[in-house]
Every structure is written in structure tokens, then in C-alpha cells.
Amino acid sequence: MNATIDVSLRELKFTVGRALHAAGVAAGAVNPVRDLLVDAQALGHDALAELHRSLPQLPAHHGAIRVSRLNGHLSIDGLGQPAFLIAPAVLDLGVAEAAGHGGAVVEVSNCTGPGMLAALAGRAHLHGLDVSVLAGSGRGVTTTVGQQPGRAWTNGTTAPGALLLFSAGDRAAGPPTPRDAAGGHIARLLADGSRVDADLWWAVYDISNGALTPDSILSRQHAGSSVLDEFGQIVGEIGEDDDYPQIQAMSRTARLAEPTNN
Amino acid sequence: MRWAETLEDLLASNATPGTETHGGRSAADLLLDPDRLMRPERLGALAPSRMSASRSLVNKMITEKWSVELASLDIDASARGRAIYRICAGAWTFSFVAYSFEPVLEGRTGRIIGQNWDMAGSLVEGEISDADVETTAVELPKLYAGRATPGTLVWCRSNRSLRLFDHVVDRLADGVQPDLDELWGVGYLMRNTGLDGNGTFGTRSFLALEADHPLRVPYHAQMLAAYLMREFSVDLVEHMARLRNPGAPRLAPELRRCLGLGNGSALGLVFFTNTHPVLIDRWLSLRQRAMVRAAGLPLDDGRGYGDHLAGVLARALRFYAEDPFTYLAFEDPGCITSDLQCALDDLARLRTDVPTAVAGDLLSRLDGVVSAEAWEVVAAALLELIPDQVDELTADAAVHEILQGAPGATVAQMRTLLSTEYAWALRIDMDAPGARAYVWYKSRDAEEPRRGPADEVPDGRNWALDLPGDLQRLDRALAGAPAGETMARFLATRPELRGIAERAQGLGGTLYHSPHMNMLDEAFRPVHIVRFMNAAFHGLDRTVDSQDRNVLGLLFQGAPTRDELESAQEWAYPAKPAGKAKGTAQ
To answer: B109 and A35 in contact by Cβ < 8 A?
Structure first.
């Protein structure tokens, strides 16, 4: 058995978000996608693995979808993108549709890893809705979503898409409150963290660091009030201790990291 | 005014905000106007108050009769070793382990990219086990690659004041108290260089803390760790003196009390305000709300509010008059002292001339007469008139920070929201020279927040919150869409705008979530936001600025030490101790 690591909600959000940035997802689209992946992980899906698998294909995608109405309900063409990337749009459309009709049926086709759509239940709950996800060949899905070749599900079955049912839930719609964190999937994540494969975690973590900027002598001058030597190494600090003789001596032989930006 | 109505709806209070305007603005109007409050310069002028995290924690410790005990201290003559503290907070117990290291001058820095600290600490729930003490000793120095043991709330680290620490050890070892002016001129023995919790390094997530957890209020866990670093700094200095001279005296209680914990902060706090708009709005709403409540209190109806306010202002005046530091971007303490004298004089006149005057009338009269910083000191002083209510509001500050969109809203409704709540952002000319001069980024080296000219960071991902730019892009795109289209349909083809749309919708109707700023602009001065977080939110005094981005300050100056918690009273605005200007033989 591989080693595991318990990661916190905060760590999950930071690492997943940065990985999406590093993979080229548009900055303004990152947070909703990140939150969906975090919800998915909290709900027991292996979202981190799905993200890791999908990262190479993300630069080719934008997250936009095609929407049409088919047999009285919404039909969404995912344009071949990972389901987690289009999930925020699916949620939006389902919520807006349900608001006018008390419920909604949304078909999603042509996406990879559609199992991730089950995680929409987390956010839909805040809108006062429950989401049921039906997939595969049952209940008429294939009759309306069969144009694309079948794609691999995360649970191992094969299906071309998903059928989502949005219906009234047991929570009134409204902004999240601390009470929402006291129960449910996020509460479990907050309390216990998420246990993930350690190798997988550090692999995504390393990728996420691609969103950070490499260090340099110049870069070190963009923060702090340090005394640097000619190699960019910090030899002292300008501040409350700047009258300390040893620091003063170092300052005379070192280059003061004067800010270039102020 | 709309903002006043919004918050007054929330007040559920019978208090009448200041009504005497003298042709100017009422106190409620001045306190609640978001276009006034949310400017970076104004936020930077907000004073520490009873709602600040450090002050509210200590007040809670006093009220709830917490106890802090030094359970063990095993540190050698080179300063290497450990100390363990036990904190009892009602039915809860916490442990704080301080790992002490031999100071290394080379490469010494308070920045997170530093590797050498004089101490590191861990605040843990319950009695820490020997095994967890050992595990933490190995894990803590790794920072982001390290993992906290279960029940850990905060990891922290600090460095000595090179100027003061050795001086105090030398004096105590010589059998005398340290020089008062030296103590007052620095204000601390150790300076905090990092407080990490809330899930970082595997620490507990604060939203998961139990309903009766003593540290549920935002930043109380970090502030307790900071308080304990302050305690440790004095215990260490006394211990080092005793190792040289077993007969060395303890630091005199009044000197011990006047020492705070130093604190250095910088650009990371600007990122914090960007990523925690719900918390910022919640906290500022509660703060300003409480001030409006206090502003409605009659000065002279027999309940003593006028005398109480005068007393607090007199203490504040003395505190600023005795300020030994020099400031660059912030108001000179001499000016604040003069302004507070003006406030005290005006308060006296007001009480004589207007028998029915309320506390807020003083704010109205001082608007435009005294500096912004002095005005905010007076506003903060109002909170001392309703301590119980303020403490109650503070306990209600925790929030869930999810930003939820409204996908059923129409494009027209979205545009209305933007034009009414973000007029300030839509007005900014983002194509003007210098409007996009800077890149905000994080270094791969310990994730240090940095800010540099765009041409010096060609490959750096810009982590700035470009609120004006993003909102303007959204507004332009919405202008080309059918007015009746739902945001769900609109965003289906424009997913890159979902983040800003959800932020604007999720914060809709709230007023104090985002500073009104273009943080990319060459004229933007980060130090105002850093000071806002440091002074108003955390409660730092003596916030000395440098390079328009760094703020040094003092936490807990004047706060009761652990030996004084049981009998402590009001402690903000401490006076410089008298009568020990030079080292005094015991």
C-alpha cells in the first residue's frame, strides 16, 4: 500500500488552484473549478488523481461549453473537455433552470471523467437544491447523448455523458453561513483533512509550484528590507537592528537592497 | 444614505447615532460610508481597538480567568533547548512548546525565506506528549514540507532584538534592571517572524473548531501563540542572566509589562485582504456597527460615558506623547498628540455647551479638523464605552468564506450591481500610464509575497487582485450581451469571467469587503493595507513603516503578563514606567 498524507482544506485549495494556474487555465476561471475539485475530494471522489490525469490536456481547453434545449431540457456539449473544467457552468445552468421550474434536467455529453459532476451536489446544496447524477446507458441517457464515443468513467464503467436531476433540497437557498461548515462534506474535510496518496500529492504539489516565480537576486529585492551580499545572499536586515554594529559593518561591505519599486 | 440604512437595519439597537452635524456629516455617516472607509489611506489610519484580535484575546483571557504556567524550561548557556507552557482556558488545556536556538547572525532575516530563527514554537491542544515534542522539533523547521502533529493550532517563529536582548541579559546578570529608555525605545525582546495555522502545514482548520473552543474567534489562536512568545522572550532573558549569575534578579513587573512582542509584516497582508473579503467585510461591519452604537450614547446622562471617554482619550494622548519612534508614511505622533488634545478640549466644550450631546457629536465636530489617524483614535475610544457589547460582537466574527454566484440573475441585473456597488472601480482608467506598473507574485522560495515593476518580472504570474480591470472587462462583455440573458448562459461561453462575477455577486449587498484600490498602479502604497491589517485587525501599536511596504510594530505592549492575568484591568495605551530611567541596583 502506498504511503498516504492527510492534507487540509487550505492545502488542498492552494495546491489545486496553483496547479490549475500552472496548467494554463484562465485566471478568472480557476477558483470555481478549484472549488469543484475540492468538493469532489471531500465527497470521496479521487479528484486529485483526476486532476493529475487531466493536467496535460488542460492547456488546450477554455472551459466554454455549447448549450441547447433538447426534448424540453437542457443539453450541454462539453466539447471534449474534462468534466471538472465545465462543472461550474453545468451547475450555473442547472440552478438557473431549476429556479424557473422548481427543478431541472440537464444532460451533459462529450466530456471526460464525468464522474466528477457528482461533486456538484456540494454547491447545489447552497442553492437549496439536491443533485442526482445518472449515467451510462440507463434511463434514456444514451438516446440523447450518444453522439460522442464513450469515454472512461472514473469508476471504471463506460458512458458517454451524464444526466443530472436538480430538485428542491432540504436547505433554503441563501449565502453560506458558518453553520454550513458545521455539517456535511466540507465539515469532514475541515475536521479531518483528506487522506491522499502521498506520491500523488507531492506530484501535484510540484506541478503547482510552477505557478510561483523562481527566485533571483533582483526578485529578493522585491520584498523585505534586507542587506544582500554580491551573490544575493541575505546578510542582515534593515530595521530595528540597523544600529547594531555588526549589521552596520556588514552593510558597509554589502549591497543594500534598496527597493527599486518605491 | 443607503449604507447607513443597510447597517442600521442590522443594528437592532435603540441607540441614536450622533445627530449633531454642525453643517457637516453625522457620526454614523462618517463611520459607515464605504467610499470613505475603504480607501487604502483611510484603512491604514484605523486605530487598534477593543475589537483588534490581540486586545480581544487578552480581554477574553482576563474575563474568563485563563491561566498560563511555565511547565518546564531546559535551555543551556548557548540558548539551545526547550520550554513548555501550559494554558488553562476553562475546560480546555493547551500546550505551547518553545524551541530555542543559538542565535546566528549570518543570513539573519525576519523574512520567510530565512532559515535561521532564534526560536520556533508550536501551540497544541491538550497536554503535548514527549513524542509530539520530538516530532515537532523535526517537522517545524521544514515549514511547507513539514507536517504538524494532530491537534496543532499554530506554528510560529521569532528572532531576538539584537539591540535589546543582550542589554537586558547583561544588566540582569549584573544584578540591576535594564535601562528604561533602552526598553521603551525598542519595546520588545523578540520579534515575531511568522504565525501559521488554519490548515497550513497540517494544522487544524479554524472553522472546524468546536462550538465551545476558546480560540474560535478569527486570529485568536495566532494571537495566543504570539502572547506566549512574548512570555517566552522574558523567561529566556531572565534564564540567560541566571545562568551567568544565579542571583540575577527577575525583570521588574512594570518593565516586563511594558515590553511587547515585536512584529514585522509586509506584502502578504495585502494578499490576505484580497482573498478574505467575506471576513474583512464581516469584521469591519461589526466594528463600524459597534462604533455607531457607542456614538449614540449620551455623554452626560448620569451613566458616566463622558468621563469614561475623556479618560480613555487622556490615556491615548499620553501614549502618543511618549511615542519614541519615527514614522514615514504615517502621521507623526506629535501631531496626533496635538490633535488628541484638541479632541479633549472639544469634548469638554461639547459637554458644557450641549447638555444632550452624544458621543458621536464629537466625531462630527472633529471631522476635517484633526488628522485621520487622530480621528480614528477617537472613534476607537468609543468602543471602550460598550465593552461587553463589543466583546459579544467580536465573538461573532467567524464566517464561512464561500463566494456564491447567482446564476439566475440577468445580465441587466448584473450590470446594475456593478454600477451601484463598484462605481469606484469602473471609474479607474486602467489604460493610463502607470496603471499597470507592477506585478505581484510569490517566490518559489518559501512562497514569499513580492511586488516588482512589470519589466523586472517578465515571467512572473501576476497574483494581484486586479479588481478594477476585472470588473471593467466583465462590464464590457456584459454590455454586448442580451439584457435578459441569465448569467448562467452568459458565463457558459465566458468562463474566464466566472470568478469575478461570482465574487461580485457573492459579496453583493455588503459594503466593506474590498479596499478601493488599483494595486497595480505605480502610485499605490501597499503599506496602508499592511498597517490596516496590523493595527486595526491584529492590534499592533507603534506601527513603524519602511519602504512603503514593511510595517514593524508591537503586540501586547502593556498587556498583563501571565502573573497578572487574574487581577488585570484596562491595559490599552500603557504609560511609560516612571522612576527607573537608568539601571537600578536590586
So the answer is: no
